[in-house]
Amino acid sequence: MIDAGMRRKGTLAVSSSELLVDAFSRVQEAVRGAIEGLTEDQLAYRVDEDANSIGWLIWHLTRVQDDHVADAAGIDQVWTSAGWDKKFGLELDRQSTGYGHTSEQVAKVRVSAKNLLAYYDAVYEQTLEYVSGLTDADLPRIVDTAWDPPVTLAVRLVSVINDALQHAGQAAFIRGVLARA
Questions:
Q1: How many CB atoms lie within 10 A of CB 119?
Q2: Does residue 176 fall inside a structural domain?
Q3: Per the structure, how many domains does the chain have?
Q4: Residues spanned by the domain of 51
Q5: Strand, helix or coil at 95?
Q6: How far apart are CA 137 and CA 52, in angstroms?
Q7: What pTM was estimated for this model as a whole?
Q8: How far apart are CA 163 and CA 165, in angstroms?
Q9: What is the CATH number of the domain that holds 140?
Q10: Tell me: the pLDDT tens digits for 89-128?
Q11: What element of type H or E holds 153?
Q12: Strands (E), the chain
């Protein structure tokens, strides 16, 4: 992991895999800060009837990370391989990542912080195991031809990090709204 001393000195002579590990570690910090200690009701809180909840945002970012990294790595998603789909028992398609969810579907994601953190941590560990073994030569590999231009592994991983940090920030904002209420 990139330490504070390296950041202060501006010496970031690290490998791509170390940089990716650091970025995903920052996502983990943001996720934990957004949900630790919250009740199921607080995780389900929505600032209005069509807004996303904290629980949905963290579940969604975790599902997307799980789906996209597993696909790029050619491995099974933690969601199904470790039985998290059954543990959560959501009334949603088991392959759902939350993309395109309606307000009614968002409302169905009611979770405990304990389960949500455990699932996130399992996805985080699988992600770190994968990205820590990557080399610069791996990053230009095409992982998705459905886009024009096709998506490389580097772009996919940066996209996952960006999406996850945005959603974790949204969850933290909602937590702040709750704290003021």
A1: 23
A2: yes
A3: 1
A4: 16-180
A5: coil
A6: 38
A7: 0.92
A8: 6
A9: 1.20.120.450
A10: 999 999 999 999 999 999 999 999 999 999 999 999 999 9
A11: helix 153-180
A12: 142-144, 151-152
